[in-house]
Amino acid sequence: MAVLALPGVVPFDLTIAGEVFGRTVLDDGRRGYTVTVCAEQDEIDAGGFTIGVKRRLATLRSAHTIVVPGIESPTTAISPAVKRALVAASERGARIASICTGAFVLAQAGLLDGLRATTHWAAASLMAQRHPEVDLDPSVLFVDNGQILTSAGAAAGIDLCLHMVRGDYGTAVAARMARLSVVPLQREGGQAQFIQPADLPPDRDLQPVIAWALKQLHRPISMPELADQGCVSPRTLHRRFQEQFGVAPVQWLIQARVRRAQELLETGSASIEQIVEAVGLGSAANFRSQFQRIAGVSPSAYRKSFGAR
What we know:
Elements: E1 2-4, H1 11-22, E2 36-38, E3 43-45, E4 50-52, E5 65-68, H2 80-91, E6 95-98, H3 102-108, E7 116-117, H4 124-130, E8 135-136, E9 142-144, E10 148-151, H5 155-169, H6 171-181, H7 207-214, H8 223-229, H9 234-245, H10 249-267, H11 272-279, H12 284-295, H13 299-306
Parallel strand pairs: 1-2, 1-5, 5-6, 6-10, 7-8
Antiparallel strand pairs: 3-4, 9-10
Helix pairs in contact: 1-5, 5-6, 10-11, 10-12, 10-13
């Protein structure tokens, strides 16, 4: 297994593969993987320090699996040599996985064209803008396309590596590695539960509407009522919400109610019934359904992960 260190590599991402794969031990005591770090240069700038690397890109020619960690500046162009090495590895059938913004490297090499992929949620819009040929899904922790795999940020790289260990050697070996890493073998939900609510939109005409609506989430809000706050027709309001948020006003309101519920689950001890009443999602059943759809986990699981202790 080869870990490709590029200039500006995220140190945490770089160590994930070495720690997970390098410490995977099989039932008979043998190590499951031989992990090597390689780079195009002798030294790699990792921000606050430099990393000395012993192996070069030639290592990629024989690696069964290649892991590309995240890089601090995802818009940085990869060198022609790195691109050729990754493409050649893909053509001979090597398994290639990225962690966090390492997906941008795979996209630059054309390895994600037409494939479903993910990256850190904070870099998702940039990925969509620069690589529209990628079928981007920013809501999940990782995507496994068989030969090409991508993961979201930081800890999601551990999720992906454990997933790969389980596929290679089975659940028992992967579970042992998960216990050694003090992480669950499989986390519930996806990236959606970690995404912060969006700021007010740049469209000043919508800001009063949004500010008013956020104060009324405890009750039903009709579209004519919402449109009146913007002094526009419901049709114009619908168009502006589509332009700003990519969803209709009704869907935005549901998302806003769920985001408010997340805040209440994070900061207080209110019961589900009290939260349902506070965010105006009707019944407890509807609340749980909408929360699961948007946040990716159940309200109780979200409170367990993010609630105040």
